[in-house]
């Protein structure tokens, strides 16, 4: 058995964490022989609820879970971390302006970035889930100057999985038969789910997605809108935001960071845009197709981008630039 790794989940008393913690603790993410110390951070009023989550984790009697540390203190939660999954954020309340939401979240992620900088290992891998995830991730990274920007990513794997599943259902194949969909840009309704490089395994042979689906109008219209609006559709139906699917996507994202992506496949995640090969504005956290090896991601280069794609990639970049500039103005305040 290897030494235990220290894994933080914030917003640990919330519903995404409730769907996530069991998977992490039983070894689905960091490996079946990797012991774990779980650090669980939430705000002070949530500590009684968090205590119930701790009891349940204890009652699972999991062999890899060495210790559980529930806390409302950043200096405890961020100490010597190997991985940080930042789920907690200020949710948008009714009648709330987007800039007010950004302001509240800048305060949270500035503080957590500073805590990462001061207390965590410099090798820590940080995944930001709390929305607006791309910009929250950028603020955390900017607030932790001693940790490499490459160690920060935000979750667009849920959008990636949604896109993959839509194509699979349309073709009547399992989701595992669909690979190399791409989510470009922001984890918002401006994201661009791109299937121009996607392959579908149809009865043993790999076809380009457009050839497998045989419905260009759907792929360029309803498919994109469905993936963009899926989060809102789940809220409308369940009266709660996606938790089970978000937790699954978090597990996929972190597992791929830890163990790498399969040969010839790429996945989507929000990463630092500076130096990217697609002409996307620098100094953003933008979702790209990436491959991962030895816990390091690399943007997949050389993919052809047509005018249809370029327009959509630019639209989502514009939104991210605006978000960034607003957030950075609050950061300086």
From TrEMBL:
A biological process term (GO) from this entry: malate metabolic process
Catalytically driven reaction(s): (S)-2-hydroxyglutarate + NAD(+) = 2-oxoglutarate + NADH + H(+); (S)-malate + NAD(+) = oxaloacetate + NADH + H(+)
Short name of one Pfam family: Ldh_1_N
InterPro entries: L-lactate/malate_DH (IPR001557), Lactate/malate_DH_C (IPR022383), Lactate/malate_DH_N (IPR001236), Lactate_DH/Glyco_Ohase_4_C (IPR015955), Malate_DH_AS (IPR001252), Malate_DH_NAD-dep_euk (IPR011274), Malate_DH_type2 (IPR010945), NAD(P)-bd_dom_sf (IPR036291)
Residues of the active site: 187 (proton acceptor)
Residues given in the record as substrate binding sites: 92, 98, 131, 162
Ranges in a coiled coil: none
Enzyme class, UniProt record, top EC level: oxidoreductase
Protein name from the UniProt record: Malate dehydrogenase
């Amino acid at each position: 058995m290897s030494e235990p790794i220290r894994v933080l989940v914030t917003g640990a008393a919330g519903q995404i964490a409730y769907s996530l913690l069991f998977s992490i603790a039983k070894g689905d993410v960091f490996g079946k022989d990797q012991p774990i110390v779980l650090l669980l951070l939430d705000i002070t009023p949530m500590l009684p609820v968090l205590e119930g989550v701790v009891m349940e984790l204890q009652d699972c009697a999991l062999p890899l879970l060495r210790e559980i540390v529930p806390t409302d203190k950043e200096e405890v939660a961020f100490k010597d971390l190997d991985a940080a999954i930042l789920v907690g954020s200020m949710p948008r309340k009714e009648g709330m302006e987007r800039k007010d939401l950004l302001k509240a979240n800048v305060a949270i992620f500035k503080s957590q970035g500073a805590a990462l900088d001061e207390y965590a290992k410099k090798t820590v891998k940080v995944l930001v889930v709390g929305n607006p995830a791309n910009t929250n991730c950028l603020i955390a990274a900017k607030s932790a100057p001693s940790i490499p920007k490459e160690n920060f990513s935000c979750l667009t794997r849920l959008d990636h999985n949604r896109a993959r599943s839509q194509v699979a259902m349309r073709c009547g194949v399992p989701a595992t038969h669909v690979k190399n969909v791409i989510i470009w840009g922001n984890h918002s309704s401006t994201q661009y789910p791109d299937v121009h490089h996607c392959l579908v395994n149809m009865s043993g042979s790999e076809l380009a997605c457009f050839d497998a689906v045989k419905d260009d109008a759907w792929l360029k219209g309803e498919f994109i809108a469905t993936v963009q609006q899926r989060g809102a559709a789940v809220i409308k139906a369940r009266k709660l935001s996606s938790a089970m699917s978000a937790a699954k996507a978090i597990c996929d994202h972190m597992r791929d960071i830890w163990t790498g992506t399969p040969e010839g496949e790429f996945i989507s995640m929000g990463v630092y845009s500076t130096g990217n090969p697609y002409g996307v504005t620098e100094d953003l956290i933008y979702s790209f197709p990436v491959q991962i090896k030895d816990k390091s991601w690399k943007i997949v280069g050389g993919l052809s981008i047509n005018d249809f794609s370029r327009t959509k990639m630019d639209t989502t970049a514009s939104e991210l630039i605006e978000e960034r500039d607003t957030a950075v103005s609050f950061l300086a305040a």
